[in-house]
Amino acid sequence: MNRFKHILLAASLAAGLGLSGIAVTTFAAASNNSEMAMPKGAAEYNSEAAKSEQEAASLEARADHHAKMAALYRVQISGGSKQEASFRSLANHCDKLAASYRQAASDARAMAASLREMAKLA
């Protein structure tokens, strides 16, 4: 049991550190990218809006995936089982990820809407 908890904790920490590393790497790469430029004209704004919508759809799919995983972990929770706390922790973790991905999808859709408004003004 203790070994399982240690493995679970190590995997959770590794996943968390990996995700934060991706965010830092992505931000650093974006800030150093000399090819980045503001959209010029309605077509480019609309193109960026479409990319944001695609990103939102991808994020929503990831949210759905984690929500399903949370449900699967919750099915494994049974009164008094040795792994009950671990399954509950995993389910809660997946719920938090799903909520984060849904928020990110909402933000991406809002960005797409803003980009479409900019396209009208361009």
Tell me about this structure.
By secondary structure, the chain is mostly helical. The chain has two domains: about 1-35; about 40-120. Helices cover about 85% and strands about 0% of the residues. The protein contains three helices and no strands. The radius of gyration is 20 Å and the shape is elongated. Mean pLDDT is about 80; it is low at about 20-25.
Strand content: under 5%
Q: Unreliable stretches, pLDDT < 50, 5 or more residues?
A: 19-27
Overall pLDDT, averaged? 82
- Total beta strand runs: 0
Rg, Cα atoms, Å: 20 Å
How far apart lie the N and C ends? Answer: 62 Å
Return the string of H and E elements: HHH
The biggest beta sheet, please?
none
Q: Which class of secondary structure composition applies to the elements?
A: mainly alpha
Helix content: over 70%
> How many structural domains are formed by the residues?
2
| Count of runs of 4 or more consecutive helical residues | 3
How would you sum up the global shape?
elongated
